[in-house]
Amino acid sequence: MLTIEIPFEMRNKRLDQVLAKLCPEYSRSQLQRWIKSGNVTLNGKPVVARYKTLGAEIFAIEPVDNEPLEDLPEDIPLDIMYEDEHIMVINKTANLVVHPGAGNRTGTIVNGLLHHNAEQKHLPRAGIVHRLDKDTTGLMVIAKSMKAHKSLVDQLQERSVKREYLALAQGNVISGDTIEGNIGRHPVDRKKMAVVDGGKTAITHYRVERRFVGHTLLRVNLETGRTHQIRVHLSWKHYPIVGDTTYQGRPRIPKEVTVEAREAVQQFPRQALHATKLSLVHPDTAELMSWAVDMPADMYALMDTLEEV
């Protein structure tokens, strides 16, 4: 059972709209189905989707499988780092979409999960509780039971899941820092995110891992998990991630960079971002568990061309 308190600033809005914003791990259609089936209650009583919020109410949500997934299982290799009856941790490769959407109905992690374990179809989004962008590599946790799904969603909402990334950024970063900037849809390009007034709270911590001529390898910790958060925040601070064609703008490569390195940076086919560490409390045993995975070969090859300072 999830409990959601309605912020006062979201008063006088339809309940389904508010819950869709407060529970991004569920689709609005899924939330509407739960409302319609009586799985969303206020003071123990079912409510309707058009209920106008007052602010400060506390709703209870019981996530259930109202509508099994229609996505098809596919034999997609998954690099499984850990698996038991409740959770699975995978090392995601580049060029792999997490779940089906417009233009990506097949060939996704969800399709691979359904092939690996048919029971995933009974969980919301086949057990996906967080995501990595298509070209970001590294660790993801996936729920295999409704108990695990609820626990992981709660931990993510409470910001107790620890996620650490390695990002190769353009520019000479002097020292670590914390970035706080609310993130929402870009006011002009709706396919992008941006730091905007009225966006969702977003906090990113980073420190310098290695320094190169014109570039810096950063170790980044997420306190929140907004869409494209690291990419948006680093670009906002003028340290865009190498290869990020969406947020880097025109690459700024110093004259001191060698011809080999310049070509490697310009030709790198994706954002140089890797989810390297993951820590969480196991949903069943309450044990604190952690995983770590090294950067993929393409990021090491890229850094080998850069001159360390």
Automatic annotation (TrEMBL):
Ranges for domain RNA-binding S4 come to 13-73
Q: Where is the active site?
A: 133
Instruction: Name a biological process GO annotation.
Output: enzyme-directed rRNA pseudouridine synthesis
Q: Which InterPro entries match?
A: PsdUridine_synth_cat_dom_sf, PsdUridine_synth_RluA-like_CS, PsdUridine_synth_RluC/D, PsdUridine_synth_RsuA/RluA, RluA_PseudoU_synthase, S4_RNA-bd, S4_RNA-bd_sf
Keyword Lyase in the entry? The reply is yes
Keywords of this protein's UniProt record, alphabetized? Answer: Isomerase, Lyase, RNA-binding
Q: Tell me a Gene Ontology molecular-function term this record carries.
A: RNA binding
Q: What is its EC number?
A: 5.4.99.-
Tell me what reaction this enzyme catalyses: a uridine in RNA = a pseudouridine in RNA; uridine(1911/1915/1917) in 23S rRNA = pseudouridine(1911/1915/1917) in 23S rRNA
Supply the PROSITE patterns for this chain. PSI_RLU, S4
Pfam families attached to this UniProt entry: PseudoU_synth_2, S4
Q: Its family?
A: Belongs to the pseudouridine synthase RluA family.
* Stated role: Responsible for synthesis of pseudouridine from uracil.
Task: Spell out the protein name for this chain.
Answer: Pseudouridine synthase
Source species taxonomy: Bacteria, Pseudomonadati, Pseudomonadota, Gammaproteobacteria, Thiotrichales
